[in-house]
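Hey, I'm writing a tutorial for new members on how sequence and structure tokens pair up, and I'd like a real worked example in the thread rather than a made-up one. If someone can provide the structure for the chain below, I'll link this post from the tutorial.
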Amino acid sequence: MAGNPRFFRHIAKLLCAVVVIASVANPVAAAETRRDDLRSGFLTDASVQDAYAVCRDYLMTSRDAKGLSLEDVEDIEIKNRHSNPRTGVTYLYMQQRFRGIEIEGANYQTAVDKNGRIVSEVDQLKRKVRLRSPVPIIPVLSAREVVILAARELGLATDSEITQLSVETTPMKETLFSAPTLSRDDIPLKLNYIEHIDGDIRLAWNIVIRTPDGRDWWNLFVDANVGEVLKKVNWVSRASYQVYPLPVESPAVANRSIVTGVPDSIASPFGWHDTDGIVGAEYTDTRGNNVFAQEDADADDLNGLRPDGGSALEFLTALDF
């Protein structure tokens, strides 16, 4: 009988059954084994390094797989950093730079757990920036020339007095002007790189002008070499919200920033505040086609405070803690 193949097959089936029964009898141990085997949610192994060093090493070692060059990852600046004392998770919010100048929309966000493992990432980095960035690298147009050019683009008078208030010597050359007949606020400018529709990475001046009547609040990116307007957004006409944007988890992590426009042109083609699909907002407060948001301190679901952005849908009020 010891040499009978049918006997061994029978024994093997019994052993498999015993293993299955043991696993079912101890589901906690089985689940732990599966988690250890899959290492679900971790992009890297445990490390004793600082969270930023972990991210730097990860980007360096995985850059080929991600289609990134050395120049794409060697100058990434931490904009905000926050550690959750309860979970031990460190959140990093980083900005890609090239030649010390920020690249518009090129962000990298990650979470590193208390054991030094990367839990998640949001990768919005630009690829092969050096190959797509034409020369010259020094702006041909001065900041003052861009103020005048932007005013003409917006149909504003250009004969007003423009006073330079400050200028930084950093690569981004952050500059501040005062021109009350052009802008209700002081006019900030700084150099940025921005991806053009043709695929090039262009050097541009970023300028913000809020018209004296308050009806328009313009954010423009102007090619620093040829004066072409590469991007123009009216924060007011597209509805503006001063918020803590995702993935910022609390005011302790970062400052508020202004977001504009519609996140999904299919779901909300006429904006968040439109409910009937006909151009024009039905609500100027925090109601719309997806959300009815209001304060409800007394938990009655009625008559709570709803901030109102007015006809311009400008939700930019001061914050009072």
